[in-house]
Amino acid sequence: MNEKIFNAVMSVQQDNNIAFNDLRTLLSQLGFRERIKGDHYIYNRAGFPERINIQPNGNMAKGYQIKQVRSLIIKYKMGGKSDV
Q: Domain limits at 52?
């Protein structure tokens, strides 16, 4: 897993400064499957009860969506070595 991207997402100070493709890469590395419908990128994962829905803001990820992804990573204790 790309530790730089993971640490950026987990850092509250960088919520509005993460590239959209970096967030997509992180979700993929965490085992999520991507489905694209218009400008909505929808992620799901086997055994994971929630879906993640993100949209780009230019080439950047939206700050509130970074917060949502971070809260799900924390809630489900994702990102450990056994998660990759």
A: 3-79
- Give the Cα separation of 9 and 5 in Å (integer): 6
Token digits of residue 44: 């799901």
Neighbours of 7 (CB within 10 A): 11
Give the H or E element holding residue 56.
Answer: strand 56-57
The pLDDT tens digits for 55-78 are: 999 999 999 999 999 999 999 999
Tokens representing residue 1 in the block: 């897993």
**Verdict on whether the full-model pTM lies above 0.85:** yes
**End-to-end CA gap in the chain:** 7
16: CATH:
3.30.920.30
Q: Does 84 have pLDDT greater than 70?
A: no
